Amino acid sequence: MKAPIVAICVGCPSGVGPEVSVLAAARVSDARPLLVGDEAVIRRAATLRRVSQRRIVVVDRAGLSRLAPGTLGVWADSAKLPHPSAFGRPAKEDGAAQLAWIDQATDLVRDGLAQVLVTGPVSKLAIATSGAHGSVDFLGHTEHLARRLGAREVTMAFASAELVTALVTTHLSLASVPAAITPKEVARATFWLARLLRDLGRAKPRVAVAALNPHAGEGGLLGDEEQTRITPGIRLSRRRLLKADVEAEIVGPVGAETAFRLAANGAYDGVVAMYHDQATIPSKLLGFGEAVNVTLGLPIVRTSVDHGTAHDVAGTGRADARGMREAIALAVRLAR
């Protein structure tokens, strides 16, 4: 059986995405990396990180079967830029190119030409203001991929050796979060987190569902979302897991600071967070540079780094590729 092809979208061309993609791909031994991005941008990143240009092979559909471990494939049909963008200064055309690379890499996996999708960090603002088709509603990979692939529901999760967490809400203003927390959404995130933990080897995962309000609402004194939204969501998740024959222990609502502290100490295998920063702050404190963003519920496997474009670091040769290496490794593992 041939090693799987990993479609790697290199991300913002003026950020660190291309260099961490090239550097991580150069160290892959159990898969065949296929970089989706402008060839000149990829070759510039290879030069910056001293990866041999001889390893870079531009391939089209007919050439995919000849892609071998140890080579760095570049998808021949990747959208082109007029010239590589200056480090740290996204050009006007960068946004459209980034969105095109996401879509092209996604389609490679959807169409069976690659087995898993790994994405580099993009500039959401550059994409959203690019005027490209599908850019107006772009808030991030999670929502965009759900629309492109027709997924009924998706869940954003982060996984590292120290912590695994999934989100009920994602890219929303904090003021919009309470209304977006419903029993159905709590059940969705809890279900998919338990599924992920099972796929990672936990036979009966222990999942804590975090509260929204301080001290889990103090019985309604500090808010009633725990009673009216989260607790019913936990009951709904248990029924859904039972129907799917997934064994899991679901507890909560647990005060968020307690849930994450106990998970970090091994009492829980994962935590369901109510909003973006409730999940990402502990995730990045405990495993920054190694945590992997996973989109659950898609018909394909998709992972990503847990960091941004780092325009201030781009071009210095100091970008840390650990996150991309972990993202590739987890994608290959989940595909098996």
From TrEMBL:
- This protein's superkingdom? Bacteria
User: Sorted alphabetically, which keywords does the UniProt record give?
Assistant: Metal-binding, NAD, Oxidoreductase
* Source organism of this protein record: Chondromyces crocatus
- What broad class of enzyme is this? oxidoreductase
Instruction: Tell me yes or no: is Cell membrane among this UniProt entry's keywords.
Output: no
Q: Which Pfam families match?
A: PdxA (PF04166)
**GO molecular function term, any single one:** NAD binding
Organism ancestry: Bacteria, Pseudomonadati, Myxococcota, Polyangia, Polyangiales
Name listed for the protein in its UniProt record: 4-hydroxythreonine-4-phosphate dehydrogenase
Q: Which gene encodes it?
A: pdxA
State the EC number(s): 1.1.1.262
Does the UniProt entry include the keyword NAD? yes
Q: Membrane-crossing residues?
A: none
InterPro entries, per the entry:
PdxA_fam
